[in-house]
Amino acid sequence: MNTAATITFLTCVMLCVPAQAQIMSTFKDSVLGRFNEQDVKLLQDTMDATLSDPADGASHAWRNEKSGASGTVTSLKTYDSGQASCRDLKITNRYKGQESQSVNQFCKNAEGAWKLVKLK
């Protein structure tokens, strides 16, 4: 799943699939679960920019002045995993005094697009 697909999936889980109440409950109280569509787009764009930046340690910030949501995406390390180039990203999201952090592994697929491999 590439970053766009990952964010789209999470957004759909939160907004489009009311029958998935159990999954929805996982995100509803999280920072990500409070993001609006513009917040998700800003996060997605920032993840893509960080994955495109070749420097390990590069950090990119985003902020939606209207909603107050913000975050940073930092590349922790780049490495080879088997035959794929991979990167670990630390993603920090903030919304109205709440903050969440995760480290996620992304690897390039055969077409050269980044895809989410693992939530660490």
Account of the protein in words:
The protein is an alpha+beta fold. Helix 1 packs antiparallel against helix 3. The protein has a five-stranded antiparallel beta sheet with strand order 1-2-3-4-5, covered by helices on one side. Helices cover 31% and strands 38% of the residues. A hairpin with a 5-residue loop joins strand 4 and strand 5. The longest helix is centred in the middle third of the chain and has 16 residues. About 13% of the residues have low confidence.
Task: Name a few traits of the molecule.
31% helix
> What fraction of the residues are assigned to beta strands by DSSP?
35-45%
Number of helices: 3
- Helix-strand topology string: HHHEEEEE
Low-pLDDT runs of 5+ residues are 11-26
Q: What is the alpha-carbon Rg in Å?
A: 14 Å
- Measured as a percent range, the helix fraction is 25-40%
Secondary-structure-derived class: alpha+beta
Give a quick account of the main beta sheet: strands, pairing sense, barrel closure.
Answer: 5 strands, antiparallel
Annotation, overall tally of beta strands? 5
Provide the residue-averaged pLDDT: 81
Strand order across the largest sheet: 1-2-3-4-5
Report the end-to-end length measured between terminal Cα atoms: 15 Å
Shape verdict: elongated
Domain module count:
1
Secondary structure layout:
Elements: H1 3-15, H2 21-28, H3 37-52, E1 59-63, E2 70-81, E3 84-95, E4 98-108, E5 114-119
Antiparallel strand pairs: 1-2, 2-3, 3-4, 4-5
